[in-house]
Design a protein that fits this description.
Layout lengths: L3 H8 L6 E6 L5 E7 L2 H8 L8 H8 L3 E6 L3 H15 L15 E4 L8 E4 L8 E3 L5 H14 L9 H7 L5 H4 L13 H15 L4 H16 L3 H20 L10 E9 L2 E10 L2 E10 L7 H15 L6 E4 L6 H12 L4 E3 L5 H30 L1 H11 L7 E10 L2 E11 L2 E2 L5 E4 L8 H12 L8 E4 L3 H13 L6 E6 L5 E5 L4 E3 L5 H30 L11 H11 L2 H5 L3 H5 L6 H17 L1
Parallel strand pairs: 7-10, 10-11, 12-16, 16-17
Antiparallel strand pairs: 1-2, 1-3, 4-5, 4-6, 7-8, 8-9, 12-13, 13-14, 13-15, 17-18, 18-19
Helix pairs in contact: 5-10, 9-10, 15-16
């Protein structure tokens, strides 16, 4: 049954295009959508649920109210919808979490004596762009190869101005990395010949450049310059590798993006092949975790809206593997963004269909890989907790595991540390540090008793406690737990003579674990983590003690001199025993300040 509040909201909806924001009882936005007619679209959610998919039914069940924004056109609604999805990240919208920008190679034909450089933004500036490339390393290698063969300029100088003012050329001219157009002695036609050869190479006509490099490599080897020959060999290999990946896949010379979606259980994947001049120059996949009940057309529609809203370059054609709502309005919007016609097509046969099948196949492979990684992670986390349950014969799987350790150096400044693992994963926000308050001197058992007692006074108690130590530490913890009237299993993590994890121990029995078992790997990582955390806390306290030292009481010793003294002598004890000459030799010190420090500590010794 609809609430009176929802009925009133629906009743007042206009028959105009716009965007609607569905909210739950906490006023949180849970879904953002757009509509040609707000009244018709929103009303559909609250009519018969017979034909609704599970995702929409779940969303509607959480709607407490909604608000809407009227726009002048459907295209405006499309843009606003996408911006609001980015702002609110609603749980029932499909969210694209990849905000990366792809590199392009830009040939600055809009400049006098053009340059070739890597950029991440495509502008309408009459320059020529190649890409996008999904591998920045390949772009860098390509630019290095171009610089190796063609001595074109890399500077940002205004060449005409440099010639007029007869400015001095940079080092690149003298090391023969640039022909020096700034000198006014370079023929523009000859220079442009190099630029057009580079454009041919970037367009896929690469045989000439590889031949030039191979000849240079042979010449270097002939001259016994094997290091240079090896560098050229690697460049040729990188270039051939790049060209191997850029296979001809289409007779079309227009820029295209091929987009296919794959779904398996609760994972979905969008795979994109970037085709430029008939060649695949890169590919990318996008995994969506929370899309179990989403249809393929909804996933691809959401992807196109979010992805092309943020990218700098839009190709002339998007080739997709399924029809979806708003294809025409999206085509119009992309055309508006690009400044020329952009088509969205769904091929049924021919070369485009064959390539889309390949894209879809890669999407399924990406899902398979993601699923395998997910399963491997589950095995390392929840899986090891189940093994621990069986190993320890516990009634329930331990969800929250806490480990404790004591740290002191030569019995000074004992501290305690607690690390927490939830479902086998580190929960760093739950880690806790303890300054030992009730124990004087190096007494690890008494110190451990204190921190366990303090820990048990807080809620969210652990399902299993691990002690960094042997049977004695286990006995201490069990004694405190019993006194508090609780029942929590406790085990010790013991090491060999080389401080490597060996296994687990109770008060009476030690069990050595197989180093190949999941339990061993987990216990070893827990022991290492709690020890690291305890040591880092101890060091931080020691450093703070050094910072707030007796030096603060000495006239003429400010922060800079104090830190210089601490850096030089490391400890207050060494500082106290330093000679006047040693103090004066520290950077930033002078005779007067050294004398003040020297006398301060000598006075202290006399009073002792």
């Amino acid at each position: 049954m609809l609430s009176d509040k929802l009925k009133d909201l629906i009743k007042n909806l206009p028959h105009q295009p716009g965007v609607y924001l569905m909210k739950d009882k906490t006023k949180k936005v849970i879904y953002v959508g757009k509509a040609i007619s707000l009244k018709n679209r929103v009303r559909q959610y609250f009519q018969s649920k017979k034909n609704m998919d599970a995702k929409v039914r779940a969303m509607v069940s959480h709607i407490d109210e909604f608000e809407y924004i009227v726009t002048d056109s459907e295209m405006e609604a499309l843009i606003l919808e996408n911006n609001l999805i980015k702002e609110y990240k609603p749980q029932y919208n499909i969210l694209l979490r990849d905000d990366k920008t792809y590199p392009y190679i830009k040939v600055t034909l809009n400049e006098y004596f053009p340059r070739v450089l890597k950029v991440r933004k495509v502008e309408k500036d009459k320059a020529k762009y190649f890409g996008p490339y999904t591998n920045a390393f390949i772009v860098n290698e390509t630019l290095e190869v171009i610089k190796e063969i063609y001595p074109i300029r890399t500077c940002t100088r205004d060449i005409k101005r440099s010639i007029e003012k007869k400015e001095r050329p940079c080092l690149n001219l003298y090391i023969k990395k640039c022909v020096g157009p700034c000198t006014g002695k370079v023929d523009e036609a000859e220079y442009m010949k190099m630029i057009y050869e580079i454009i041919d190479f970037l367009s896929g006509k690469s045989e000439d450049m590889i031949s030039i490099l191979e000849e240079k490599m042979r010449q270097a080897a002939k001259n016994l310059d094997f290091e240079e020959a090896a560098i050229l060999r690697d460049k040729i290999s990188s270039m051939k590798g790049m060209l191997e990946r850029q296979k001809i896949v289409s007779a079309s010379t227009i820029d295209q993006d091929y987009i296919a979606v794959a779904k398996e259980e609760d994972l979905s994947c969008i795979q994109v092949f970037f085709v430029r001049g008939g060649k695949v120059v890169g590919r990318e996949n996008f995994i969506f975790d929370k899309s179990r009940n989403s249809q393929a057309e909804e996933i691809i529609s959401s992807f196109i809206k979010q992805f092309y809203m943020s990218v700098n370059y839009v190709p002339k054609e998007l080739v997709v593997d399924t029809d979806f709502e708003d294809m025409q309005i999206m085509s119009d919007w992309l055309s508006s963004k690009k400044g020329q016609k952009v088509q969205i097509t769904v091929p049924q046969k021919g070369d485009k269909k064959h390539l889309l099948d390949l894209v879809r196949k890669n999407a399924f492979e990406a899902i398979k890989q993601k699923s395998n990684l997910k399963m491997a992670k589950l095995e390392r986390t929840v899986g090891v907790m189940k093994e621990l349950q069986e190993f320890l014969q516990l009634d329930e799987m331990p969800v929250r595991v806490e480990a404790f350790d004591i740290s002191n150096i030569q019995g000074v400044d004992s501290v305690g540390a607690q690390v927490v693992f939830v479902n086998g994963e580190k929960a760093k926000k739950l880690y806790r540090r303890y300054k030992i308050k009730s124990v004087d001197g190096p007494n690890d058992y008494a110190s451990m008793e204190e921190i366990i007692r303090r820990r048990l006074k807080h809620p969210d108690l652990p399902d299993l406690i691990l002690m960094d130590g042997g049977k004695g530490q286990v006995s201490v913890a069990k004694k405190v737990i019993a006194e508090e009237g609780l029942s929590i299993p406790v085990l010790g993590m013991y090491k060999d003579s080389r401080h490597k994890t060996l296994g687990l121990t109770t008060e009476s029995q030690a069990v050595e674990l197989s180093k190949h078992s999941l339990i061993y790997r987990f216990i070893a990582s827990v022991q290492e983590e709690v020890h690291r955390f305890a040591i880092s806390y101890h060091r931080s306290l020691r450093d703070k003690g050094m910072e707030k030292s007796e030096l603060d009481e000495i006239s003429g010793i400010g922060k800079t001199r104090k830190m210089a003294l601490i850096s030089e002598f490391k400890t207050i004890e060494r500082l106290k025993n330093a000679t006047l000459e040693e103090l004066a030799s520290v950077e930033g010190m002078n005779k007067k300040s050294a004398q003040a420090v020297f006398e301060h500590f000598r006075k202290g010794q006399k009073s002792d």
